[in-house]
Amino acid sequence: MSSGAHGTVVVGAGHGGVETAVELRGRGYDRPILLIGDDPHEPYQRPPLSKELKADEPPLLPLRTTSMLKDLDIEVWLGTRVGRLDRAARTVHTDDGRTRGYDHAVIATGARSRPLPIPGIELDGVHYLRDYDDARAIARRLPGCRDAVVIGAGFIGLEFAALAASVGVRVTVIEAGARAMGRAVSAPTSAHFAALHRAQGTELVFDVTVERIVDEGGRRAVVLADGRVARGALVLVGVGVVPNDEVAGDAGLPVENGVLVDDGLRTVDERIWAVGDCARYPSPYAPGTVRLESVQNATGQAATVAAAICGHREPYRDVPWFWSVQGPAKLQIAGLRHAESTAVVRPESRAGRLAVYCFRGEQLCAIETVNSAAEHLAARTAIERRIPITPADVVAEGFVLRDAVRTHQAA
Amino acid sequence: MVQVNFHTPDGEKISIDAPEGESVMQVAVQNGIRWIVGECGGSLMCATCHVYVDPDNSQRLGVASDDEDEMLEAAASPRTECSRLSCQIRLGEADQGINIHLPPTQR
């Protein structure tokens, strides 16, 4: 093959990988594009997997139609794992023995469920939830399931808990930390969601680790470090994710809980980029480097990398935002909270709503809202433009963020 | 199948045959109608699937929910009485030939 035919190889066919390929074509890139994904299913939307888990055969919502990818002349290898990236030869090698050369390679390998190394984790009825096959296995087990144990009170665990409780499953959530979604949200937001889950009949147990899981004649018994036991027909393990950075690391690229990239998402190799859950980058919205797990992060970074490959290199500066749906509560987070940030709750009288403003020193760094979509959208603007809002503003009578943003923009 | 006609801001018309039950946002995103972003996947979280529904087709849709109404207020392109979030428009038989006008920007 002549070197002129190489084009771009995208490793990973999730949100970030697919968007990189599509965006390249959108920008008129006319070299070959190969998209390689290890998931056997056509590229699909991941968020619904933990948010719409009711049917026994969950819907596979495609990211783009197969015919569209074909029309765009994007070659797709599914069910294929890339085992090696040879930077000297500029080739990627798949586990099934195929090789392809590249001018540019984009690592969009995502992340996998963090394994919980305890006895009994391999038992039937113990599930992780990351990909479509996981979701299908859980959905098939759910009908007729009367009780479930969730290990980990993060987004995935609590989204599942809310869904399961809504179909009458008695859920116990075990969390090693002191509060719900403790790494992701402020204490007031944690408390809001803990109350909501308890109102649904879910039991939340904090500050305790899990020792082992035992089979009790078809039911699972989760034995805690303090000797207590939580029982359920199904156990869901949601204790975070691990980035799939091995391909990059094995190729000699710097990795540090994620593939290290610069502010334009390029690795130290000028022909290799990384986007999405697997990429660690310097964000203008937080000190040091961050690795974010969200669709918006993956697709936004994909657009930046596609532009760069087409010769328009710019730093990635999109304001990070996240969302979660748990029962009647839609949580949205704009910006990046810091462990030491101060949380200020905006006075709110409307039922079911919450708004928490997080400050790093004097600087507004994140806003968490529940069932307040318009305030969330204003929050993204406020953080992106660094509109000066103080803790005193937030608690002042009549404070409306959108008005504050408009006033500032008009000034 | 239901025919959906997308009208781009520069006057182009793109017609797509979509299965009943799909949302207009899904149809647009899957088929690369780039004026619709659908960043949140249809969870009423982002207002990046804002469209203007032709008045001739809008009667069947009913009024926007409170959530949709709040999101539309925050949409990037101006809101008009034809504004809807396309993730909330689920295609049925009655929508045959629906005309969807796309706004110039979603962000």
From TrEMBL, chain A:
GO terms for cellular component: cytoplasm. Its cofactor is FAD. Residues 321-404 form the Reductase C-terminal domain. The gene is hcaD. This is Pyridine nucleotide-disulfide oxidoreductase. One of its GO terms (molecular function) is oxidoreductase activity, acting on NAD(P)H. Residues 8-302 form the FAD/NAD(P)-binding domain. Keywords: FAD, Flavoprotein, Oxidoreductase. The keyword Flavoprotein applies. InterPro entries: FAD-oxidoreductase/Apoptosis (IPR050446), FAD/NAD-bd_sf (IPR036188), FAD/NAD-binding_dom (IPR023753), FAD/NAD-linked_Rdtase_dimer_sf (IPR016156), Reductase_C (IPR028202). It comes from Micromonospora sonchi.
Automatic annotation (TrEMBL), chain B:
Residues 2-106 form the 2Fe-2S ferredoxin-type domain. Transmembrane segments: none annotated. It comes from the Bacteria. One of its GO terms (molecular function) is electron transfer activity. GO terms for biological process: P450-containing electron transport chain. The keyword Transcription regulation does not apply. InterPro entries: 2Fe-2S_ferredoxin-like_sf (IPR036010), 2Fe-2S_ferredoxin-type (IPR001041), Adrenodoxin-like (IPR001055), Adrenodoxin_Fe-S_BS (IPR018298), Beta-grasp_dom_sf (IPR012675). Its cofactor is [2Fe-2S] cluster. Pfam families: Fer2. Keywords: 2Fe-2S, Iron, Iron-sulfur, Metal-binding. One of its GO terms (cellular component) is cytosol. Belongs to the adrenodoxin/putidaredoxin family. This is Ferredoxin. It comes from Micromonospora sonchi.
